[in-house]
Amino acid sequence: MKQRQPMVSITYRELLNQELKSRIQNDPLYSLRAMARQIKISPAMLSAILNGKRNLSVEKACDISKALLFTERQSDYFVLLVLYANVSLPKSKEDLRKKLLLLEMNDDVLNASERKARR
């Protein structure tokens, strides 16, 4: 019997939502509109992305990670999450899953409390 592989801990939508919540917590004047302005998309488009009604392209994911000043590892992780969400070939999805799981072990990507909460 094949052993079940661990799943990726988070989606790119969840990661963006966490980033938005964190920024609002640090600055109560920050909002979805402020994030949309920062990443150069409309608030409606950001809302649609966060709610799963629109998808991100890899190119836009790169732009967003730069605009939000993600570290290099956070940016790599975010872009891989977008790729993972958009790919349909099982072999490609599995390869991306492995890369994501390796990156998740680094504290720069998900902090320790988030990793513990997802186990």
Report what the structure shows.
The protein has one domain: 434 Repressor (Amino-terminal Domain), CATH 1.10.260. Helix content is 66%, strand content 0%. The chain contains seven helices and no strands. It has helices at 12-26, 32-39, 43-50, 58-67, 72-86, 90-104, 112-118. α2 (32-39) packs across α3 (43-50), α4 packs antiparallel against α5 (72-86) and α5 runs antiparallel to α6 (90-104). The protein is globular. The relative contact order is 0.15.
Number of continuous helical runs: 7
> What is the architecture at the second tier of CATH?
Orthogonal Bundle
Helix content: 55-70%
Gross morphology is globular
Low-pLDDT sequence parts: 112-119
Reported for the largest beta sheet, the result is:
none
Give me the count of strands: 0
Mean pLDDT: 85
The Cα radius of gyration reads 15 Å
- Write the H/E string, N to C: HHHHHHH
Which percent band covers the strand fraction? under 5%
Query: How many structural domains does the protein architecture include?
Result: 1
Alpha carbon gap, first and last residue:
23 Å
